[in-house]
Write a structure and sequence with these properties.
Blueprint (H helix, E strand, L loop, with lengths): L1 E3 L6 H13 L7 E4 L2 H8 L7 H10 L5 E4 L6 H8 L3 E4 L4 H10 L3 E4 L8 H10 L11
Parallel strand pairs: 1-2, 2-3, 4-5
Length: 141
């Protein structure tokens, strides 16, 4: 199992999910939990750029993903873990709060994956916001 916001999906997300899939070995199913809009608003203090169902559909369309589901409305991590029953939970480099919650339950092996490159959704958002005033951040063709 893997989880995230996936708001402004990028190559780092794909690499994270590819690595998460490999952890399960041959024939493993990768279920990805996509954060709800309300969870992003509550945790990040801003609304997501993309709607939750759009983010879920994009994630599910990625090759390493077998199934993508929306997270709990109240960010109920324990409920999602009970429903999915994962053997392994792959956490991204920035999911520190989730690691504590998941390890406390002890229902799955937790593996932290590293960051791929220097790309992040926050960085992309910042580049887009500043693209009108800084030619360095123009979209490449």
């Amino acid at each position: 199992m893997a989880a995230g916001c996936f708001d402004l999906l990028h190559y780092g997300h794909l690499r994270y999910l590819e690595e998460a899939k490999k952890l399960g070995g041959e024939g493993a199913e990768l279920v990805v939990v996509v954060a709800r809009d309300s969870t992003i608003m509550r945790r990040k203090g801003r609304p997501p750029v993309m709607k939750e169902e759009d983010r879920r559909a994009l994630v599910e369309a990625l090759k390493p993903v077998d199934r993508a589901i929306l997270g709990g409305v109240d960010f109920d991590t324990e409920l999602v873990i009970r429903e999915v029953k994962p053997d392994i939970i792959a956490l991204g480099y920035d999911q520190n709060d989730l690691e504590e919650i998941v390890k406390a339950k002890g229902e799955a092996t937790v593996v932290r994956l590293g960051k791929y490159g220097d790309l992040s959704s926050s960085k992309i958002r910042s580049m887009i916001n500043s693209s009108g005033s800084n030619s360095e951040h123009k979209v490449r063709r």
